[in-house]
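Notes to self after the call with IL:
- keep both proteins in one doc
- input above output, always
- annotate only the second one for now

Protein 1:
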Amino acid sequence: MDAVLAALRADHPDRAVVDELTDRFVALAREVHRCCEVVILEGPASVAAVAERVTNASADLSYVMRRMAEDARAGDTTRRSADSALATERERALYDTVKEFRLAARAAIGRTA
């Protein structure tokens, strides 16, 4: 995620690099979503609720990153600044939600550290 955003924020994004990084990110994001689905279906309600928020926060960030990648491929810079700020906001939201997930998972398995 960080590598994709860094590549997209470059003054002149390298389209091949952006595509490669985006493809790798999408594959990893799909794995995270699959794992979250298992937790949502089989985990305790307290953890499932946070796992669903992780999935939603990841999807929100992915949407912005896809749009940024499409704009980079098209050479369109009109939304670049706004999308970069939005990506930063959504990246932070995802990070915070993942922290919540870790705490909920630790509590569910009886670990506090």
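Protein 2 (the one to annotate):
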Amino acid sequence: MRAFRAVLAVLLAAVAGGVVPAEADAGVPLRVATYNIHAGAGLDDRFDLDRTAGAIRSLDADVVGLQEVDVHWGERSRFTDEARELAARLGVRVFFAPIYDQPGAGPGAPRRRFGVALLSRHPIVDAANHEISRLPTQGPDARPVRMPGFGEVAVQVRGARVHVFCTHLDFRPDPAVRAAQVRDMLAITGRARGPVVLLGDFNAEPGARELAPLWESLRDVDPGGGTYPADRPTGRIDLVAASPGLRALDAHVVPTTASDHRPVVADLLVTPAGRPTPRR
């Protein structure tokens, strides 16, 4: 945290003074976070979107990946469009990537959707909802099928384009579906031109065998603490991963019971290797 603030202070001083010191070439600061919001319900299982928004605001992150986001989904979240409501409360941009998209609860009712979302202070210059393997929970399918819900935004960070992905992997004890999801995600992130950040609820610890292929091209940004369950974490299943071109300065888990998970915050630098060469 101290390192991140020191770099940020250098950059701000450079802007104020109209000069760019050598230290500024070290990179552009970017704070990211991942948070499974439990559809807006706290560990007490009580729906309170203001509490959820407050918890996200406290992270002070530039880009936040959210999982378990309801959009007109059901009574548990009062049929709220959580993605839009949270963005409005926080004054940020949003991209929602549904996993499930079903007819509304009644005639004329908006469609019921559930998935992941990405909130960003920075301009979103591109966005996509990618398909990966999933074993559906909303039907009789007994085999994995290709389904959406692997969200991506390309954000413009002071001249650098960073690709931020948000995922929610399979929760079942059998790792086979997660292994397939990892293969699918790597095929997609591998096409990104520029630095990559992968945020999400992986439902597995970083040392799990099915996640091992991720660490061949990405780096686990370890916050040094558990994330689930929120009151007394016994596991770290909410992860931040970064590609070359991004340097991790600091990471930490935020203790809160506004969900059944704790959020993870990571302070990164977009290094010169991750920034485009200026045209001359």
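Annotation: The radius of gyration is 19 Å. Helices lie at 2-17, 49-59, 82-90, 176-189.
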